[in-house]
């Protein structure tokens, strides 16, 4: 006998578990199907453990330079196993909390791999191979995405790793090579760099973090190089060789010359692909784009009205908070509530050192669209709080419509950049102008003062920098 639910969510990541909790809150008999761990990639193998290690590696680096503040300490050492225990404890605490919230919201958790067997039926196969029939009125697909593989770099979990295995390394490799200069590659690369690895980044294109403000990239790249990183752009990695007991990544440089880089561990971080195959979506006639993302409307519905899709499997941007927002919208619509996904300002954080935070339009994006803008920029070298805590790298850049002064976006590079995007996201959603931000009193001394200062600079009214 099949168990029937009003709503079934496939995938318990930051989109899926949020959708399931909201559906349960709204009185729907709800189940969430998860083939691995509650919390999905984000809580178990991505956002949370990576930020834990980013914090820990930053602390390790600060201890090494504590003498600048007058603190005399011995040379610190990394206990990789202890670090992993701490990181795993953070993950367990969060995932356990999510499981508790699902239970208290009346959500049934079904462990196994789901596949559509009809318009309103799933077959869920457990780890023991036993199938379970599950019927539903509505279904929300939240199956996420997985790392793109490179045939010339077969992942073994030790020498060649994806982000998942990199987060579980209990030692600091002498040399750490990242294939792909995107967000994950740079975040995890800097973790290993701060802990003591020699970092090399190999990027196929002519820029790190393609699509990011070039001025912000200059600040980040300078930081990487200052810490000893080698950055090889317009370079194509081709494989691994071992010579005299030393492992090397082979590549071809922009001039066609052969490149060889020592590599104890290689992180393959060249992108992700949606987990849409193997679900049996073809049996329902669900439409996908050329890359395998499910096509959805403003309610996160596919072309099949009772089938929704959220998160990475439903397209860019691949952000946990975007998935969570979509999960709420999909669940509320499935429950018959009037709702739609109408986000104007999607914030994004890149947790390198320094951080890069963006929201709305970046300056180069506005120019590419032919939008006339005014730009206000304020450097952290002129901010009291940044000076007081020794975090003066970077700046705030605000972008406003040249005619209306409405805020269109922000690019922030520096300490706490991702946190600082929140105020601008709210301002954009509320229809605020740059003048509104400039007129708002900000506490002193704080990092958010930089937003007020940048807004004033946009209008040539800055106090703490010269107006140009």
Can you give keywords for this protein?
468 residues, FAD/NAD(P)-binding domain, seven-stranded mixed beta sheet, 31% helix, globular
Shape: globular
The main sheet comes to: 7 strands, mixed
Please give the share of residues in helix: 25-40%
Helix count? 13
Distance separating the two termini: 74 Å
The CATH topology of the largest domain is FAD/NAD(P)-binding domain
The low-confidence parts are: none
- CATH architectural group of the largest domain: 3-Layer(bba) Sandwich
How many strand elements? 22
What is the domain total for the residues? 3
Estimated structural class = alpha/beta
What order do the helices and strands come in, and which of them pair?
Layout: E1 3-10, H1 16-25, E2 30-34, H2 40-45, H3 47-64, H4 80-104, E3 108-111, E4 113-118, E5 121-125, E6 131-141, E7 145-147, E8 160-161, H5 163-166, E9 175-179, H6 183-195, E10 198-202, H7 214-226, E11 230-232, E12 236-243, E13 246-252, E14 258-262, E15 265-268, E16 272-274, E17 307-309, H8 320-334, E18 348-350, E19 355-360, H9 363-368, E20 373-379, H10 384-388, E21 395-401, E22 407-414, H11 417-429, H12 434-439, H13 449-458
Parallel strand pairs: 1-2, 1-6, 2-3, 6-17, 8-15, 9-10, 9-15, 10-11
Antiparallel strand pairs: 4-5, 5-6, 7-16, 12-13, 13-14, 18-19, 19-22, 20-21, 21-22
Helix pairs in contact: 1-8, 3-4, 3-6
